[in-house]
Amino acid sequence: MSTKSKIKVIKKGEVRNTEVPVLAEKKSKQESARQMVSNVTNWVSDFQVRKREETKIAFEQLFAARPQTGEI
Asked: Domain residues of the chain, as ranges?
């Protein structure tokens, strides 16, 4: 076994800041507002499409061709 271990001596002047601060993606207020409006618009559109489909199915079931009692 080796009794010598490697130790690195760092002097005060040699210390470097190795951490690089992570820059968060900054969006302007206008860009953030535009994104929110887009999200809400998509939600409303999806809701309307879903509602139309449900209404269409309900009307089709309600007014489906059923045999009348007086018909032969």
From this structure: 29-63
